[in-house]
Structures are given as structure tokens and as C-alpha cells.
């Protein structure tokens, strides 16, 4: 195992490279108000974060990542465009056993990151190329996706607003999403809500129960999603190929799924910009499902750099989170993209 000093030295080296790219170093607090994070991610985040009660500051959370506090700081005081970098520990609960060189999933680990707030159309390519250059000595594989593509595809399904919203809510939870999609694709199950012979009891009022029953009846009256649409969505979500091949497939799918046409053109333009920065798109994998199991604030381009070791998390990852700036900016928004590198994993590779 590598020492903390080794990891810090690599982190400082990466931090210096981010500063050379024009970033200003920022140091968010380790202990953050839990309310904002719970509002953003819901109660699910409790399963992977460390939460504690403070007698003065109420519920607090050990920093699960840097992006949210960096965005908060920028939206309060920052001008645009702006570049930030940081280095520090984050804290995540893990489902695995003790970490090891073959399974380096620490509950506390070092992150070095870069965030760019800019309206320039080449921002995605700029950030990806910066990470690609810093990580190229380590021979990692690069994978990308676009959550905007997936969100647009779901919005384009011929479903009721309530059903589309339910699918959109669970896009980042693939198993729940698939169960909902299967239910919406099946003939409606008969529902019978006879008037009870006895008064209702429980926490809900009769008005609340009647409203719930009305929603269930309305949902049961919806026609199932035609099989042709579930097949199109399946073909999209299983698309995984080198970028040029993937773009050709997306253009074909867009003929049957007009809602993804704009996203397809945006993805093609992004890879043109990446190629102009000296990176061959054929060496970059495009996975349409990429980003669906990470933090829910990614709503556009996503990327990761992976080591050839089973069980390892991504050595680096990132993406676009425009909607997050709107939420934390209380209506004011700016396009933003960022990413992190795990110095500890690089240290493990260099020591091997």
C-alpha cells in the first residue's frame, strides 16, 4: 500500500497542473450542512454519506464530494468565466470489504479536482482534453456519455406527463427505472377501490386518500407504452462503441426518436472539438448509459478514465451539471463542467 505522503505528492502535482490551466484554488469546509445535500439527492444519500447532529448547526454531513460546495461558493460570489481547483479528502460509505491494492475503495480518500464555469461552446472538450493530457502517462481507457441524450429520449416517449416525470426521477437508478418502464409497457392491471364500510384510519386524511385513489385510477387508464418504443430505448441505452461508430448509430436512432436529434448533433460537435485538440475520437468509448449510477447532478456530457483492474473505481471522472448551478444559484445559472482525479489510485499504479 502507498503512503499518505505519496498520495499528497501526486495530489499536489495535479493541483499545480490545474493552477497552470488558470484555476484558482478553493478549500470548502469538510463538514457541510446536510439540508442542501438532502434536498438535492433525497434521503438515498444517507446510505453513502456520514451524517451527524450538531447542537448548534443542526444536521451536518462529512463532505461526500467537492462540486456542491464549490458551486455554492461560485454562485454566491463568483464572476464568469471562472476556473477552480481543489485538493482534499472526501468521505463515502462503501459496500465492499477492507480496501486493498486490488480493491482500493477507501471510506476516506483524496480528491483533486477542476471546475469550469463558462458559456464557451468548447468547454466540454477543454476539460476532457485537460484530464486526458494529465492522465495519458498512465495508459487509462477513456469513456464518455451524455445524460442529456438519455433525458431527451425519456422526454420524447409517448407517455403521460406523470409517467415521464416518474421515469426521469429514476434515470439515475437503473433498476428502479427498468421496473417502472416494464410496468408502463404492460397492460394496466385492474384496480378496484370500493367505498369502505368503516371509517379510514391512519396518518392520511380522507381527502389525501381520495386524491391518491384518483391518481391511481388515472394512471390505470393510461395505455401501455408500445413495444416499438421500449425497443428503441433499449437500443439507445445499450449503445457502447468507439465514438465514431456510436455517432453513426445515434444518427440512425434519431430518425425514429426525433427527441434525441439535437443531443446527437451536440455529441458529434463535441467530438469534433476533442479531435481538434489532438485526441482521436476512435480511442474514446461512448457509452449511452455512462453516468447513470453517479451523482444525480450530471445532466450533460460525462467522462471517466479507467484502469485495467477489476473492482477499481474510476481513476478520474466528471461531467456537466448546468441544472445544479440553477438550483444553487436560486434561479441564476451558468453552464458548468468539472471533474476529479483520485491521487491514491495513481499512487497505486505507480507503485506497481
Automatic annotation (TrEMBL):
<feature type="domain" description="Class II Histidinyl-tRNA synthetase (HisRS)-like catalytic core">
    <location>
        <begin position="6"/>
        <end position="172"/>
    </location>
</feature>
<dbReference type="GO" id="GO:0016757">
    <property type="term" value="F:glycosyltransferase activity"/>
</dbReference>
<keyword id="KW-0808">Transferase</keyword>
<dbReference type="InterPro" id="IPR041715">
    <property type="entry name" value="HisRS-like_core"/>
</dbReference>
<feature type="domain" description="Class II Histidinyl-tRNA synthetase (HisRS)-like catalytic core">
    <location>
        <begin position="219"/>
        <end position="338"/>
    </location>
</feature>
<protein>
    <submittedName>
        <fullName>ATP phosphoribosyltransferase regulatory subunit</fullName>
    </submittedName>
</protein>
<keyword id="KW-0328">Glycosyltransferase</keyword>
<dbReference type="Pfam" id="PF13393">
    <property type="entry name" value="tRNA-synt_His"/>
</dbReference>
<dbReference type="InterPro" id="IPR004516">
    <property type="entry name" value="HisRS/HisZ"/>
</dbReference>
<dbReference type="InterPro" id="IPR045864">
    <property type="entry name" value="aa-tRNA-synth_II/BPL/LPL"/>
</dbReference>
Amino acid at each position: 500500500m502507498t503512503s499518505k505522503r505519496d498520495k499528497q505528492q501526486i495530489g499536489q502535482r495535479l493541483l499545480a497542473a490545474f493552477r497552470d490551466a488558470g484555476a484558482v484554488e478553493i478549500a470548502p469546509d469538510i463538514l457541510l450542512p446536510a439540508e442542501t445535500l438532502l434536498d438535492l439527492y433525497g434521503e438515498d444519500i444517507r446510505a453513502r454519506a456520514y451524517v451527524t447532529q450538531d447542537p448548534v448547526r443542526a444536521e451536518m454531513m462529512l463532505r461526500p464530494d467537492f462540486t456542491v460546495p464549490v458551486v455554492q461558493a461560485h454562485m454566491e460570489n463568483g464572476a464568469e468565466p471562472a476556473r477552480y481547483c481543489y485538493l482534499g479528502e472526501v468521505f463515502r460509505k462503501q459496500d465492499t470489504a477492507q480496501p486493498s491494492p486490488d480493491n482500493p475503495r477507501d471510506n476516506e480518500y483524496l480528491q483533486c479536482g477542476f471546475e469550469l464555469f463558462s458559456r464557451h461552446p468548447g468547454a466540454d472538450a477543454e476539460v476532457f482534453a485537460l484530464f486526458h493530457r494529465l492522465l495519458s502517462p498512465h495508459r487509462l481507457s477513456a469513456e464518455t456519455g451524455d445524460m442529456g441524450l438519455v433525458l431527451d429520449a425519456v422526454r420524447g416517449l409517448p407517455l403521460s406527463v406523470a409517467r415521464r416525470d416518474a421515469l426521469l426521477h429514476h434515470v439515475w437508478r437503473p433498476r428502479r427505472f427498468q421496473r417502472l418502464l416494464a410496468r408502463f409497457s404492460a397492460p394496466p392491471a385492474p384496480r378496484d377501490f370500493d367505498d369502505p364500510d368503516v371509517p379510514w384510519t391512519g396518518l392520511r386524511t380522507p381527502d389525501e386518500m381520495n386524491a391518491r385513489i384518483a391518481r391511481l385510477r388515472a394512471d390505470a387508464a393510461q395505455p401501455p407504452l408500445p413495444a416499438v418504443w421500449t425497443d428503441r430505448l433499449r437500443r439507445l441505452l445499450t449503445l457502447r462503441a468507439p465514438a465514431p461508430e456510436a455517432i453513426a448509430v445515434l444518427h440512425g436512432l434519431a430518425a425514429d426518436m426525433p427527441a434525441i436529434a439535437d443531443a446527437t448533433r451536440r455529441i458529434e460537435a463535441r467530438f469534433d472539438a476533442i479531435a481538434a485538440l489532438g485526441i482521436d475520437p476512435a480511442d474514446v468509448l461512448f457509452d449511452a448509459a455512462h453516468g447513470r449510477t453517479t451523482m444525480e447532478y450530471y445532466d450533460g456530457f460525462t467522462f471517466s478514465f479507467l484502469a485495467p483492474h477489476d473492482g477499481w473505481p474510476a481513476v478520474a471522472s466528471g461531467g456537466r451539471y448546468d441544472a445544479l448551478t440553477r438550483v444553487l444559484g436560486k434561479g441564476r445559472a451558468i453552464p458548468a463542467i468539472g471533474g476529479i482525479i483520485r491521487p491514491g489510485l495513481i499512487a497505486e499504479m505507480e507503485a506497481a
